[in-house]
Each structure stands twice: as structure tokens, then as C-alpha cells.
Write a structure and sequence with these properties.
By secondary structure, the protein is α/β, with parallel strands linked by helices. The protein is built from three helices and 13 strands. The strands form three sheets. The protein has a seven-stranded mixed beta sheet with strand order 2-3-5-7-9-10-12, with no helix packed on it. Strands 1-4-6-8 form a four-stranded mixed beta sheet.
Length: 238
């Protein structure tokens, strides 16, 4: 097997073993995304040198690591300056120099801490999965991530509100904030996510009504809002 493909299969294996068995739908989406990456020429053909390393992405990841207060499974143990960040656990990069982070998958690693807004500097990020951990605090306002399609932060201990600025991540397809302690209203700005097909906000403490404009999202297939404090007169828009 060519060295590049060998490296890629290692990355795929690591990502696959981290998936929670409770997330079959998300697992299927992730595997599809990774399969597409695998078909690209030169996937994973990055050596240990940092010559082609992007300093913005590297700093963003290291700033994220600083926000981690507990890493019992040592998921970030190889996040060091001696190796290219594309070889760090949970990280998959684009296929050509300068290599940019396209996937950050740290699901089910028992990580504790806060999610750094530095992740908003990962301009090529396509998938962010921090689900099934113990992140606390508010979800940060991210810079507009024009490549982000999949955002999973479900099953954590997040508080506060969902920032309406997420609507600036205009290519979002799937959004999962379920099973946290989020409050406030469902941001009406989400109605600007023209491509979104999956929204899961169940098992939080949202109040108010469901924004009517969500019913105008022609690609939306699943809207899960159960186990919240939404108005009794609120209805799922159609």
C-alpha cells in the first residue's frame, strides 16, 4: 500500500474507533466524508516535518488544547510541536500544501474544559465533532466557517445560549446541540441556513416558541426539539 494511503487508513481507523455506538446516523455521515477524502489524490501524504505546516491552524489547535482541563484518555497526548498537526489524534487535513485542518473529531474522549473560540480560525474545517465529552461553559461565537458542514457538540455540559452567528456558517448541513443545559430561545437566524437538513436541540432548556421561518428551510428533513421548555402553543413549522 502506498505510504499516503497507509497513513490515511491509520487516520480513518483512529476516527472510527472513537465513534460512539449511540450515534449511527452521525457515524454514517462521518464515514461518507472520510471515504470522499480517501479518494482524493495524495490524502495523508504529509511527513513529520513542519515545513508545509499552516501556522494559523496550528495555533488554533494549540489554543483549543489550552482550554482542556482534563484528558483522561490522553487523546491529545501527541498534540506537540515536534510533529505536524495533521498527524495529531482526531485531526484530518486537506490533501495539498499548505495542509489545512478539514476534520476535528474528538468524540467520546471524556475531555473536560471549555471550547475555545480559536476553532473559528480553522477556515477549511468541514466537520467538528466534540460530542460525548464533558465540555462546560458557553459555545463560543466562531468566525464564519464557510466550509463547515457538520457540527456535533451533543452530550456535553454546555450552558448559555446558541449564538445566532452560527448562521454565518452558511454551508451547515447537520447541527446537533442535544443533551446539554442550553437556555434561551432557538435562534431565528438559523432560518438562513439554506442547506441544513438536520437540527437536533432536544434535551436542553430552551424556552419560547419555535421560529416560524424554520419552516421555510426546504432541505430540512429532521428537526428534533423534544424535552425542552418551549411554549405549549409552539408548533413545529411546516
Amino acid at each position: 500500500m502506498p505510504p499516503g494511503l497507509s497513513f490515511t487508513f491509520c487516520r480513518l481507523t483512529w476516527a472510527f474507533t472513537m465513534r460512539s455506538p449511540k450515534q449511527p446516523a452521525k457515524l454514517a455521515m462521518l464515514l461518507l466524508l472520510l471515504a470522499l477524502l480517501l479518494l482524493c489524490n495524495g490524502v495523508g501524504c504529509v511527513n513529520d516535518t513542519t515545513i508545509h505546516e499552516n501556522s494559523v491552524d496550528r495555533k488554533a489547535l494549540l489554543d483549543f488544547k489550552k482550554g482542556i482541563t482534563d484528558d483522561p484518555q490522553r487523546a491529545l497526548s501527541n498534540w506537540t510541536t515536534t510533529a505536524h498537526f495533521c498527524r495529531w489524534n482526531g485531526v484530518i487535513c486537506t490533501t495539498t500544501p499548505q495542509y489545512r485542518v478539514s476534520v476535528l473529531n474528538l468524540t467520546a474522549q471524556n475531555l473536560r474544559g471549555q471550547i475555545s473560540p480559536s476553532l473559528g480560525n480553522l477556515a477549511f474545517l468541514n466537520l467538528l465533532d466534540l460530542s460525548y465529552n464533558s465540555f462546560v461553559g458557553t459555545f463560543p461565537v466562531l468566525n464564519p466557517l464557510q466550509q463547515l458542514q457538520y457540527l456535533f457538540v451533543n452530550n456535553n455540559n454546555l450552558t448559555g445560549t446558541i449564538p445566532g452567528a452560527l448562521a454565518n456558517c452558511s454551508k451547515l448541513l447537520s447541527l446537533d446541540f442535544s443533551s446539554n443545559f442550553l437556555v434561551g430561545v432557538i435562534p431565528p437566524e438559523l432560518s438562513f441556513l439554506a442547506h441544513i437538513n438536520y437540527i437536533n436541540f432536544k434535551s436542553n432548556q430552551f424556552e419560547g416558541s419555535i421560529p416560524d421561518d424554520l419552516g421555510k428551510l426546504s432541505n430540512l428533513q429532521s428537526l428534533l426539539l423534544g424535552d425542552n421548555r418551549l411554549s405549549v402553543n409552539s408548533r413545529v413549522p411546516s
